[in-house]
Amino acid sequence: MTSPHQAAISVSQYWALPGPSRFAAELSHALESSGTLVVRIDASHITGLRHAVRDALSSACPVPERVEFVDLDEGSHLESEVGHHFGRATLSAMEFATWSSLPRTTIVLTPRTVRARERCRAYVAEVAAEQSLGRKYSTRLVVIWNAGDDPLVPSAPCVVGFDGTLSPDEMHAYVTLRMVGQRGPGTTSLARHLVTEFAGADAMLAEELIQLSHEELLQLPESLARVTPRESRRSPGRSPELAHQNSIDTLQDWHRSRSQGPDAAAAAGRIYSMYWRACVRSLLPWLEERRRPVIDLLRPSLEDYLSPTKGVWKKVNPWRQHETRDVPIDDLEFNDIVAMAHYRADPFSPVEPEAQRLVEGCRRAKRVRDALAHLRRPEVGDIERMVRVFDGAIG
After folding, report:
1. What is the pTM of this model?
2. At a CB cut-off of 8 Å and minimum separation 6, what does 85 contact?
3. Which residues of the chain register pLDDT less than 70?
4. What is the pLDDT of residues 315-329, one digit of tens each?
5. Least CB-packed of 125, 230, 365, 381 within 10 Å?
6. Beta strand 139-146 pairing with 105-111
7. How would you class 373 by CB atoms within 10 Å of its CB: exposed for 0-12, middle for 13-18, buried for 19 or more?
């Protein structure tokens, strides 16, 4: 399994993306007008969230403000934890709400257990009730609430939600930046597209996939067994406006596909469609770019082979065997080369070793394209052999 110490989200790149930066702007705006605010998180963990909250507070505050983060565990005494930052043994919700000494202080609570969340919910309700009277005091209360652990969000005047997921365009941009200079296999971008597709909307999963070798990426989805198991990063009860409709929980689908459950086949179909999409987006353009160079390298052998027909291939109509179509050398496709090599009466069989390797590469290319045309994942061996042959010949 990939080590959690190896895989880490790039905070600067993640928070610069439109979705996360839009949440940060929304949070900053909410902090300008609310003394009690809940940040509802529909994810198990979002890297850099505290930095985002601190930056939002800095943007929202016209004067210097003290910001204190307080984590609440099972044995934490909330009033004591808050009071510590005000030089008091304890500070009740009423005292916190009416505190008037400067500098203005924001307390950011993060409850981590059931008991801590119960105490936090009551504390927030009391603070919000007092602040609703309209008086201006020098305190602000912010709660980071994980809705996946407890969907009953504290009652507060303002709730800002964020699920941490990325849209397909954002994930493509994130993975591209994280994998700059990394290609593979060979000169293809298949590895990068596989990470983008299998990561879905989950930046942390993208980072864990980036840690895999090219060989392991090509063996997806089986390589998902090496990824650290964890619960879904998105809460089943998240609000629809936070959910990306095209995101799929890859790890859950992977485990479903290996079970005997009624939805195993559907989950397997979704998983293998990710591989197919990655191949379509990376290999088809790559093949189109190499068709002409491959034909040019085969041109001397093709001119010898097609000399009886004045340099054109009489391509037989598969549905009307008596009909043919003239195809000049420049218009030949990989499957045409393979068809010539399989022509029983006079097979195309060049004697030069390099040309023979190119014909083998065309066979592999045909298999890859045929699989993609039928919505199937190509065989890894066909992909690797095709890339080696064409990269070796074209450079």
Report:
1. 0.83
2. 66, 68, 70, 105, 107
3. 1-6, 62-64, 134-137, 228-248, 321
4. 877 777 678 888 899
5. 381
6. parallel
7. exposed
